[in-house]
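Hi all, a correction to my earlier message: I attached the wrong file for SLH domain-containing protein. Here's the right sequence:
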Amino acid sequence: MKRALFMFLLVSILFIAPQAGFAQTPFDDIQSHQASADIEAVYEKGIMRGTSVNKFSPDEFVDRAQLAVCLVKTFNLNYDDLKFIKAPVPSDLYDDVEDNIWYSEASMVMGYHKIFNITNRKFRPHEAVTRIEAASAIADSFAAKKLSVISTMMWPNYLDTTNLTPKQQSDISFVFNTSIMRYTGNEFKPEERITRAELATILNQTLKTLAVAMPAQETGSGSSPDSSNPVMNPPDINTAAFKEQGDLAFIWQGLLYAFDGKTGEVKQLTGSGRAVQPAWSHDGQWLAYIDVTDPEADTGPLWLVRRDGSQAHQVQGLPGLAGRQGFFWSPTANVLALTMQDGVWLVSADGEPSRLVQSEGTFHLAWSPDGKYLAYNGTLPSDQPEDRSDALYTIAVDGGQPVQRLVAPQAGIQVTGWWSDGKGLLYWVDPLHSASLAADGMGLWSLRQGDTEPKFLSSGLAHQGWLSMSPQGRLLIVKGEWRIVWTRKSLAIIDPESGSVQDLNNPEGSVAIDPSFSPDGSRIAFVAAKELGGDVWGFEKPEELNAWVATRTLWIRNSDGSGAHPLPSAGAGVYQPVWSKDGDHILYVRDNALWIIGADGGQPEKVLGPFSEEEDLFGFYGYSSYQGITAWYQP
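and the right structure:
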């Protein structure tokens, strides 16, 4: 319904009054109102005025023109760096806004920043504003100012928002988590009209949020091109599905989050940049990650942050940038070991870094199970680069000299781990330090501490996640050379001490990949996918790749090789199954999202996703990993 002309003139005077501070409100209709303090706050800041000399009219509804003016004042919105050949006028954008009315300028600012939903050149200035419209306008105003807000992220449990668009749900999550718009109960009532008192409360909470907001930065290739929310479209998490399953760190549109499976709290830990490779400390109190500054190499400064978001700091004093698989937490203390260009360094969570040993060509290391030793490789000096040899070393982390365990003549060494009892080491051998040869498979070797002759175990691809150790010390491995994943890949269980190998039969017509031992070592989860043969080295059409991915299914078998069976309800396109600590559930990736399913079957539930990072189904000749954007802590 249209308002009378005298009301237009009155509102015009009230909204364009000077924005100087005011000593106190003159209103006699707010004294007993629950929003009186918020009304006084926004009045004193010149953001809202009354409807008459001594009336605020708290229960009157707000229209789009009023909200536009209030948002311009609250956020100091303007045209920023936009330049015009001629000064803009409302008729450039709208057919229903006069050129010189009190909300003309605000309506144009809204239009240029795309803050209001405008269709058919209609601003609809006198249409009442709903809660969802207010939520979206505020979220879009933060985005227009390029402001980021770090807050505790929880997906609101409103039952009446499920039919809204994903962006509207994201906007509601933003205003909920920043406490700008929080309503008790399980209803947001998105179509309910906003009153003037309610708007005063919303704007006062917005001012408090603005006080702690920070300039947003580009999030690199991990950001979504259509992100418009100041918290980059908050992640959609099924808290109930992950309840009591531990804690999950994950990257969402370049930002790092921590999800507490006990409380359901989701904490945003970074406000800008692009984080990768989150890693939990042994006690679950710290996260390490890389803030990528070199997108091509995926390297950057090493950062540490507590799980609650406090004490975030870049590690100072390191001689270079950290790489994706170059740092590891001690299994017994809050200490990181990492490889740098000049050797192995140690970094305590709250202290300065120190170099443990100086070496060259060190790219791989591993902690002993008791946290007292590190194993690493080092390249020996040579006048002929093609004749370089690596040595395998161990060193006590509390000091002492490195001990050379063996030399791999004219070959590189990639340390991969220790025996579960700490009495031996596992490592890959890369002939001639050749990246091409290594990509098609290397030999895995085992060396008992004190011995000089290692045992050859098997050949395979040294993909992170393709080795799994049981509590009993047995090693589960994907055997098979050639870099292509869809041929000549099978599972085997190896005794690292004796070198004995137990081959496991593949499901008929399939390769077996992505293996994982259950916590008690009695069962194995793995992915079976169609065997395509050695003639297929790529796919000419995306649908051909998608068809092969659709054959990736979740399987379970006993560790003696018996009882192999699929879990068809897990769906198609399965990657990276990992067991829960109690052995009752399996977490896996499907459709670019994290899912959880009972180890004995049942209906899966989506925990998180789809991830905002673009899904790469091909990866490296069929190998794709999500370990750089997720980390699961199970206390």
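Sorry for the mix-up. Residues 468-613 form a domain with the Neuraminidase fold (CATH 2.120.10.30).
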